[in-house]
Amino acid sequence: MPTGQIRKALSGYYYVYDNDQLIQCRGRGVFRNRGESPLVGDFVDYTVEGENDGTITVIHERKNSLVRPPIANIDQAILVFSVKEPDFNTILLDRFLVVLESFHIQPIICLTKSDLLDEKMELELLQYKKEYEQIGYTVLMTYKDDPKFDEKIAPILSGKTTVLAGQSGVGKSTLLNTILPSLNLKTGVISDALGRGKHTTRHVELIEVCEGLLADTPGFSSFEFDLMEKEELSSCFPEFVEIQDSCKFRGCMHVKEPKCAVKEAIEVGDIKEYRYDHYLQFLNEIMDRKPRY
């Protein structure tokens, strides 16, 4: 039985990519009965019926999956944050980072509109860039009409399945517009991919770009901690993970426990205080959540 990857879902059909071809498939009724649904990004087995039609019979195990946008097996997310209009916001960035870490999706931080900064703000932003890079994140700063942007982004996209995320108004569309023309797409196709125009169907599609796959979804604009338990939170802060085995108590929550390696690292400046403050805020949010039944 042939195996392929769903690259597009539209109007009840799944378009499975196999051997340089897209096969239009339906899902088996059994998926519906089980409450399962094939997702863009899924690797699937399918049967061929007719020349270019098929039925998806098996969904392979997923590495991860998101609900909004509905997509599976993502390697990384480019978090698009503007430095101005709207202003750069570390708590929102950390919220995105934590949720991506919980899904085992590698975050890449992309700061847009850097040309709008004055000298003082630029120094401040460069300091944040350095601090997030010390944690282990890749941080790109982009300027309007940056001639070297393609050189920066191409190796990041190569060989990976990538989604874009960020608030509205931060420049996601501009970023997609910059990346997608390298495909030599007609502008109409780019407009469709960006979800522009009243009659455009909102759908998720994986497009080959820079030798990788990019989801041309409008992306997701907010993240909640609905699925996260309080014990999992600290594992989504890489700089905590690095040292928390040195805490005196196993399962230390880094709040009131004595001899906590994380709190000691904050005191000496190895962990930034704003990151710890955000951890506490997120922890309270998870603990205040209404129980699910």
Written overview of the protein:
With 293 residues, the protein is of the alpha/beta class. It has 3 domains: 3-60, OB fold (Dihydrolipoamide Acetyltransferase, E2P) (Beta Barrel), CATH 2.40.50.140; 71-215, 3-Layer(aba) Sandwich (Rossmann fold); 230-288, Ribonucleotide Reductase Protein R1, domain 1 (Orthogonal Bundle). The chain is 29% helix and 24% strand. The chain has 9 helices and 13 strands. A hairpin with a 2-residue loop joins strand 1 and strand 2. Helix 2 packs across helix 9. The protein is globular.
Structural class: alpha/beta
Strand order of the largest sheet: 10-9-8-11-13-12
Number of E-type strands: 13
Number of domains: 3
Measured as a percent range, the helix fraction is: 25-40%
Strand content: 15-25%
CATH homologous superfamily designation of the largest domain: P-loop containing nucleotide triphosphate hydrolases
Biggest beta sheet summary: 6 strands, mixed
Element-by-element helix/strand order: EEEHEEEEEHEHEHEHHEEHHH
Uncertain runs are 182-201
CATH fold field value of the largest domain: Rossmann fold
